[in-house]
UniProtKB/TrEMBL annotation:
Gene3D superfamilies: Glycogen Phosphorylase B (3.40.50.2000). Pfam families: Glycos_transf_1 (PF00534). It comes from the Bacteria. This is Glycosyl transferase family 1 domain-containing protein. It comes from Helicobacter canis NCTC 12740. InterPro entries: Glyco_trans_1 (IPR001296). GO terms for molecular function: glycosyltransferase activity. Residues 42-112 form the Glycosyl transferase family domain.
């Protein structure tokens, strides 16, 4: 065991879209069964509006996006940074490119082995390392957030953002 549960202060919230209700119930059952005597501090929530999600992210230290899919531009990554939450993403698709362009952490993830130990351990190590160096990581996040906010009205920045969103880079 990694000791992740002992190191998490507060709650872990998982937000899924409405079509993922069965997955939420399954994840909740798995979380409860892994530690029946010491329940994991996890709550899985249904989809929220962008405004509601921003309020949740503003209270979070980390924003974890363990996607199984080869995503295009990770808008949630930028939303997390702007809200003050360090994004942690699976190293698939353009999510990796998005954190390289903006900021964030990634973990090794094999979508063919979704809930296998190697994927889970990789995520646990990334979370623990990020929490262990939280002060310096948060300082970096604040710097990157300031850069994003200063550049929001810059033509060059907007063009870069559009290219990332449409083409995954370029």
């Amino acid at each position: 065991k990694s000791g992740l549960c002992e190191r998490v202060q507060g709650r872990i919230l998982g937000v899924c879209n409405r079509s993922a209700r069965e997955a939420i119930a399954d994840l909740s059952r798995k979380a409860e069964s892994t530690s029946p005597r010491t329940p994991l501090p996890c709550t899985f929530l249904p989809a929220h509006t962008p405004k509601e999600l921003a309020a949740i992210l503003a209270k979070a230290k980390l924003s974890i996006l363990p996607s199984l899919w080869y995503e295009t531009f990770g808008l949630t990554i930028v939303e997390s940074i702007l809200a003050g939450a360090i994004p942690i993403v699976s190293d698939l698709g353009a999510m990796q490119e998005t954190i390289a362009s903006f900021y964030g952490k990634s973990f090794s993830f094999d979508p063919c082995q979704a809930l296998q130990d190697s994927n889970i351990q990789s995520l646990e190590v990334c979370i623990i390392n990020t929490l262990d160096s939280y002060e310096s990581e948060f300082a970096t996040l604040l710097q990157k957030r300031e850069e994003i906010m200063q550049n929001l009205h810059s033509h060059h920045y907007l063009k870069k953002l559009i290219n990332l969103y449409l083409y995954g880079g370029g």
